[in-house]
Amino acid sequence: MKKLLKLEEAAMLLLGIWWFSLLPFAWWWFPLLLLAPDISMLGYLAGNKVGAYVYNFFHHKALAVLVLLAGIYLKDGTLQLAGIILWSHAAMDRLFGYGLKTLRGFAYTHLGKIGKDQ
């Protein structure tokens, strides 16, 4: 089952790359921005609870879809780009085993514990 879920996330990442290819941005914007959602880790400076909420907000695919749809509706390429980056980043994270965070701390995710002492 784990391999099937990883294949699904890989497909979603490829979908994000394809969506990006439809936008008029230079190719280098995609890899440059792909890790930008991880800035949300700074929420952990305020503690585990705030950190988890901030991190999960920016790593939730529903937010990505809403931003992308807003960009399509408003014909705003930058909003579309933001939605695609959020989508692709979330898919990439889950592909590598990084899930949404629990309130216990950064290492505890909905996919299990991450780190050296898993």
What is the element layout, followed by pairings?
Elements: H1 2-21, H2 29-33, H3 48-58, H4 61-74, H5 77-95, E1 101-102, E2 105-109, E3 112-113
Antiparallel strand pairs: 1-2, 2-3
Helix pairs in contact: 1-5, 4-5
The number of distinct helices, counting runs of at least 4 residues, comes to: 5
Strand content: 5-15%
Largest pleated sheet: 3 strands, antiparallel
Strand order of the largest sheet: 1-2-3
Gross morphology is globular
Encode the helix/strand succession as letters.
HHHHHEEE
Measured on Cα atoms, how large is the radius of gyration? 15 Å
Report on the structure:
This protein is mainly alpha-helical and 118 residues long. The protein contains five helices and three strands; from the N terminus they run αααααβββ. Strands 1-2-3 form a three-stranded antiparallel beta sheet, with helices on one face. Helix 1 (2-21) runs antiparallel to helix 5 (77-95).
Feature tags:
3-stranded antiparallel beta sheet, single chain, globular, 118 residues, 5 helices, mainly alpha, 3 strands, 58% helix
What's a concise summary of this model?
The protein is 58% helix and 8% strand. It is mainly α and 118 residues long. The chain has a three-stranded antiparallel sheet with strand order 1-2-3, covered by helices on one side.
